Amino acid sequence: HGPAGQAAPPAAPAKTPATTRADIINRAKKWVTAKVPYSMTSYWSDGYRQDCSGYVSMAWNLAGNEWTGSLGNYADKITKDELQPGDMLLFHNQSDPHAGSHVVLFGGWTDHTRTYYVAYEQTRPHTRSQSTPYAYWSDSARYVPYRYKGVTGSTAGSEPDTAKPAAPVRTPFPGAAYFGPGADNRHVTELGRMLVERGGARFYTTGPGPRWTEADRRATQAFQEAQGWRGSAADGLPGPQTWDLLVTGRG
């Protein structure tokens, strides 16, 4: 959300440098690639604060570091149906900015149902982009879509950026050793993403990651039980059959 008071709402109209949707997403991807560590007090080499609002300030190419309480001055409210890559989803908790306030960049819908989108965000431990349930994992109803006032072009960049890393990759089952307590690898992330796409988002509070958690076990078990499996077949650990159903979209 950013330190309150660092960027007070401007008395004059906020300066909104012109930029394109493609440039916004390309700048956002640079931090994803660099895995910029999250911090509310540190600044990256480009001069922007390493928190969620500093990230959006950077992607929008703003002159300074804004916070969740001031970013709205640089944008216009829009509807869910109007969202395009480079827009933002903002939750600013006015009563207590430090409690839940957050902002993410919209990267495009993952499919025609418009229930999941690619979110670019600065969060712990570092910048990431991943498939996210609309509008967010928590406090979903409190997120408001906005469009940066300086974005140029009406249709350029309107095609969803489905961000290939956020979509399930149909790889063969890697083996049981890659899952369960203590596991920390990319296959755990892939499993989580597939489970989220199949309705498992309710088990995750911050989204899937490489470290195996109870959320992964519960989401896997729920998927297995939905197939009618019981006992050891629904123990929350993925086997070849569970994996095959997930990667092929069956089950």
From TrEMBL:
Lyase is among the record's keywords: no
PROSITE patterns: NLPC_P60
Domain NlpC/P60, residue spans: 18-148
A biological process from GO: proteolysis
GO molecular function annotations of the record: cysteine-type peptidase activity
Gene3D superfamilies: endopeptidase domain like (from Nostoc punctiforme), PGBD-like superfamily/PGBD
Family matches, as InterPro entries: NLP_P60_dom, Papain-like_cys_pep_sf, PG_bind_dom_phiBT1-type, PGBD-like_sf, PGBDSf
Keywords from the named record: Hydrolase, Protease, Thiol protease
Pfam short name (any one): NLPC_P60
NCBIfam families, alphabetized: PG_bind_siph
Entry's family note: Belongs to the peptidase C40 family.
Protein name: C40 family peptidase
Taxonomic source organism: Streptomyces sp. SID7958
Taxonomic classification: Bacteria, Bacillati, Actinomycetota, Actinomycetes, Kitasatosporales
